[in-house]
Amino acid sequence: MTLESIKGLGPKNLKLLNKLGINTIEDLVSFYPFRYDVIKRSNLNELEDQDKIIIDGIVETIPSIFYFSRKRDKMTFKLNTGENIFNINIFNRGFLKSRLKVGTSITVIGKLDKKHNLIVVSDIKFGSILKTTIEPIYHTTYGIGINTIKKYINEGLKDFNTIDYIPSYLIDKYKFIDKENSIKIVHNPTDLKVLKNALNRLKYEELFLFMCKMNYLKNNDRNKVGLKRVVDKKEVDKFIESLPFKLTTDQLNSIEDIYTDLIEDYRMNRLLQGDVGSGKTIVSIVSMYINYLSGYQSALMAPTEVLATQHYQNIKNIFKDYNINVELLTGKTTTKEKNKIYKELKEGTIDIIVGTHALFTEKVDYKNLGLVITDEQHRFGVNQRANLKNKGITPDVLYMSATPIPRTYALTLYGDMEISNIKTLPSGKKDIITTVKKDNEIKDVLESMYIELKNNHQIYVIAPLVEESDKVDFTNVYELEEKMNKAFGKLYKVGVLHGKMTSSEKEEVMTKFKNNEIQILISTTVIEVGVDVKNATMIVIFDAYMFGLSSLHQLRGRVGRNDLQSYCILISNNETERLNILTQTNDGFKISEEDFKLRGSGDLFGVKQSGDMVFSVADLKRDYNILLKAKEDSMYFLENEIEKEDNKNILELIKNNFGLD
Ligand code: ADP
Ligand code: MG
User: Buried b / exposed e across 102-115, counting CB within 10 Å, b at 16+?
Assistant: First the structure.
């Protein structure tokens, strides 16, 4: 069965489903609800004024409608519940009137106003609820409603293929329901206990496969011998001495850790954690220098072009008096330039290559890559490093991340990965003063901005959207450009940066901002990671509630990059309590823990950006206990079971995932 063969599913909705990541019937049936609403008929005697009420009854009077405007209306009628006759108010559902004939059975969900014997209804369901119902709630996208998605899923459930990846001995051990039934149950649950079993089974499978992948890769790595280097420590110290600033103790300790890893013959697998602005980049540069001294090539991979370019310039600058060949390779490098770089990487004339994912495409072939560094590790999957084509050498690996992973999780996920921490910021740095402002306090915001501008400082302004959208009503970049030009355009220059611009356009704007030819840079979150302009002392973030705390903290880290006092203004009418956490602390570790508490693992691990950690039902935090079991089981499985004929499909899946053979 294909998506196209579903009754009533036309090309328009097909596109929308594709947008939700649904391309096959199998995708469709594994498009699981993200939560469930448990609906239970309320017991009237137990309800207080303003409580949520769910009750069924019969429409007693013909509804009457009052229109405020074309789109806004209020409908009123009376509902007979057998015990009582309630007044019903419901807004913006005038279109339901024709179905609400007198005598129709409905269930209303709303808020009880005891004094007026009134229910302000938020939702009406046709037919009555006799017992508890469990309603699956799905993510949607503009143009397609939950009910439509449900209808398609139920069509899909009639005929779909599924492969069960849990080995049979584990199915027996946990007495799991079979996969096909589990899938059916999660879409149409009738019993909470059964639902939980079905969900657990699907979560376990996801986490089991995930842990198998992680551990398989690790075992695969472990069997490879690392490089043993001979490096004159004095050369390294001399280099550190020559840097434009004195390194902090934590930076020096991290370098020491890395130095030891590099000169010993085991393979380095190290995570360098440090808050935004803690100075991880320079540690990576020293590491690359050590690697260079021992005669190997280094690759530094960044998640965005803007960041890769900045690293490239930074590194080139530091090595300007050295005979070290540094090049930049991104998706936007011209074909001619790319071919030249490929050739030079293969011949070994490039010592340090900086870039984006482009570094690890099929075509890139290194002569003797000895060190791979990924910046903002949480944005990448672990897959990339398996793609290295490298003349049989297994490089040492350093991951850098500003999003600290709580230690227990790091150990579970990465197992034997070593961790170096940079806890202190370079001296002289001040905490960023953060405030939360309402939309209607924009005048205050503009005044604060003006003060910074008058002091010859620069400002970032962040909007969630690039351009106006008919789907959502968030602030966009172009709207802000207009506003800022109106407020400051006479005296200061306003620039715009976003992901839809070409890389040369982006680079031009960034260079102008760096050179202070632009004072106000309006941007989307493309600016989020790592960008470093020291004279910027203020960041203003519109619709701040749209972002996770960790993302906001990262954004805030764009300022406060020298000893000037810096400011962050979060503009939001919503979720101010959550945002207030940022006004109280500048400690990224605390913030990520808060995020973790509030939102589950999603934001923490940068899911959606990192290929490995996108789960459709599991959540690393909520399902931590399942994860632990899955981890243990995966280790036994890889040790004793994976080679068995019955488990061939699992081995294949893992290998495909890493492009291994
Ligand atoms: P992050 O850890 O967020 O990647 P960066 O490496 O970009 O931080 O460093 C932030 C800023 O601090 C950079 O401008 C860098 O040059 C500067 N910096 C790094 N280490 C020191 C230090 N020891 N003393 C003074 N400034 C430093
Ligand atoms: Mg950085």
Answer: eeeebbbbbebbee
Averaged pLDDT of the chain: 86
Evaluate if residue 391 carries a pLDDT over 80. no
CA–centroid distance, 287 to ligand 2, in Å, is: 15
Angle, alpha carbons 599-604-606 (nearest 5°): 115
- Ligand 1 proximity of 282 Cβ (cutoff 6 Å): yes
CA distance 318 to 282: 10
Whole-number Å distance, alpha carbon 231 to ligand 2 midpoint, is 26
Q: Which two tokens stand for residue 263?
A: 């000169």
Q: Quote the pLDDT of residue 277.
A: 80
CB 89 within 8 A of CB 121: yes
- Please identify, by atom number, the ligand 1 atom nearest to the C-alpha of residue 422: 2
Verify whether ligand 1 is closer than 6 Å to residue 560 (CB atom).
Answer: no
- Closest ligand 1 atom, residue 251 Cα: 23
Residues 327-371: tens digit of each pLDDT: 999 988 999 999 999 999 999 999 999 998 888 777 888 999 999
Best mutation site among 242, 281, 375, 587 for ligand 1, i.e. most ligand atoms within 8 A of its Cβ? 281
376: pLDDT strictly greater than 80 = no
Question: What's the gap between Cα 478 and its chain centre?
Answer: 25
Q: Which of 247, 278, 318, 558 to mutate to test the pocket of ligand 1 (most atoms within 8 A of CB)?
A: 278
**pLDDT category of residue 483 using cuts at 50, 70 and 90:** very high
Percent of the chain scored above 90 by pLDDT?
50
Tell which residue, 37, 34, 35, 32, has the closest CA to residue 123. Answer: 37
Cα four-point dihedral sign 642, 644, 646, 652: positive
**Ligand 2 centroid, distance to 278 Cα (angstroms):** 8
Q: Could you report the per-residue pLDDT of 551-561, keeping only the tens digit for each?
A: 898 889 889 88
Left, alpha or beta for 371 (phi > 0: left; psi -120 to 50: alpha)?
Answer: beta
Phi-psi category of residue 37: left, alpha or beta, with phi > 0 → left and psi -120 to 50 → alpha: beta
DSSP E strands, 24-96: 35-39, 52-59, 64-67, 73-80, 85-91
Over residues 306-339, the pLDDT tens digits come to: 889 889 999 999 999 999 999 999 988 999 999 9
Ligand 1 neighbourhood includes 358 CB (under 6 angstroms): no
Half-sphere exposure of 634 (CA within 13 A, CB side): 29
- What residue's CA is closest to ligand 1, atom 23? 247
Query: Ligand 1 pocket, 315 CB below 6 A?
Result: no
Phi-psi region of 151 (alpha: psi -120 to 50; beta: other; left: phi over 0): alpha
Residue 561 CB less than 6 A away from ligand 1: yes
User: Going by CA atoms, what residue is nearest to atom 5 of ligand 1?
Assistant: 279
